[in-house]
Amino acid sequence: xxxxxxxxDLTGRVACITGAxxxxxxxxxxxxxAAGAHVVGVARRAEALDSLTNEIGAQAAAVVAxxxxxDAIPELAKAISVPFGSPDILxxxxxxxxxxxxxxxxxxGWDQTVALNISAPFFxxxxxxxxxxVKGWGRIVNFASLQTTRAFPGGIAYGTTKxxxxxxxxxxxxxxxxxxxxxxxxxxxxxxxxxTNAVFSDPERxxxxxxxxxxxxxxxxxxxxxxxxxxxxxxSGYVTGQTLMVDGGFTAK
Length: 253
Hints:
Number of strands: 7
Shape: globular
Number of helices: 8
Radius of gyration: 17 Å
Order of helices and strands: EHEHEHEHEHEHHHE
Helix content: 40-55%
Distance between the termini: 39 Å
CATH superfamily: NAD(P)-binding Rossmann-like Domain
Oligomer: single chain
CATH architecture: 3-Layer(aba) Sandwich
């Protein structure tokens, strides 16, 4: 029997992570690089991407772009493939939560949320999948949410897109898994990121959220390492179309 650890080895793989400038996207980039992958981080903030590539070193490159700009997707796909070749792994961690109450949702806020949270993952995947088909191997990881199945105050636009991510993931799996490309989603609970500053800046609110989990605490960035590596490696070769909730059991209660 081969060493079971080998199925998590990403040496020779190329990974692209959107939203890599901070939070869970940045953490994913660090984890995949540590597992041997070459990493291309995509985000709008050049300085934050520079910090990431400096930490990883020669295995990393950065592309400054707004993935919500649909017209620019073809050129973005080309730019992503320049440093190390076309990606084998694509993680869609870029996202936005406008936190507008239903009565206050604006057309601009709605369109911005849809463009970044659900349109960008599809159209960027669509642009990069042909090269994965040629290789006969690929991994797509979308980001779902607690709001994929739960309704939160001020989350009607965000929650709608995250519910859509679950179906997008299933549809991607149906379309592309016969070519060796798996598509899965991760649904984080409450993790300390820029997107959840409003939660963690209120200790009482953070405490209430922790109490709603089965484990009894909120997420730590390192809690995401194993699930990300699993879904991006050979270890998950027969897993596709699934949403893995990494939420300490929040949605189990």
